[in-house]
């Protein structure tokens, strides 16, 4: 129930907010600021909660703190290298890896695991389709399995990346067929999957045609040359000029 209450805070269910609404910062007279890299924000992430719930207890044998790389068939890159590639500390990476190893002894996570995770955190809706899209966004190589390295690099972008990095990641999520363009059909599929996952635990209650209206408003702003698709440049330029979209980047952790 606690997870459901947290989700209710998201008014429209999208990853990028609603370009048709008055920015929260304008309503309150507060200038938008990039989210701080807080542990509280980190702990709201479904994927992080899933991993850390399986991590070894604090104070366990010291050999655990060295990650016991030989205990798994797929060994991650050196921690120092991962620390350089992400914005996680070495201690955070150790905790994440222990949980990852316990849940995925092979060192790889598959799509079924993603679906299980999101069905547990969003029991009031159907998370199957969204988990599928999210998994494909993490699975950059398209081989049906995600390595620990790719997993934490993606998490680092989503939770602690710059706005530009998060927007590029969001574009990749919406670009379902990975052809470098976002179509209305692709964006609508993502929007619908998020609404389906969140069920009716949104405020205000959403109408059935809300996802389509949302997509129409986005394309009216983003598709500058009106060719029916949105490029990465159009996406980045439009999003970074829209104060409401920028503010909503703080809501990433609600559906990740």
What does this structure look like?
With 256 residues, this protein is mostly helical. It is 53% helix and 4% strand. The chain contains 14 helices and 4 strands. A two-stranded antiparallel sheet has the order 1-2. α7 (111-121) crosses α8 (128-138), α8 crosses α11 (184-198) and α11 (184-198) runs antiparallel to α12 (210-222). The chain is globular. The model is unreliable at 1-15, 19-39 and 58-73 (pLDDT under 50). Its main location: membrane. InterPro entries: EF-hand-dom_pair, EF_Hand_1_Ca_BS, EF_hand_dom, Recoverin. This is Potassium voltage-gated channel interacting protein 3. Residues 126-161, 162-197, 210-245 form the EF-hand domain. Keywords: Calcium, Cell membrane, Ion channel, Ion transport, Membrane, Metal-binding, Potassium, Potassium channel, Potassium transport, Repeat, Transport, Voltage-gated channel.
Q: What's the helical proportion of residues?
A: 40-55%
Instruction: Give the terminus-to-terminus CA distance.
Output: 18 Å
Count of β-strands = 4
The biggest sheet, with number of strands, parallel, antiparallel or mixed sense and barrel status, is: 2 strands, antiparallel
Tell me the fraction of residues in β-strands, as a range: under 5%
Q: Strand pairing plus helix content: what structural class?
A: mainly alpha
H-E order? HHHHHHEHHEHHEHHEHH
Uncertain segments of ≥5 residues (pLDDT<50)? Answer: 1-15, 19-39, 58-73
Identify the strand order in the major beta sheet: 1-2
- Described by the principal axes of the CA atoms, the overall outline is globular
Rg calc:
19 Å
Subcellular location: Cell membrane
Region (Disordered): 1-30
Domain EF-hand: 126-161, 162-197, 210-245
GO cellular component, one term: nucleus
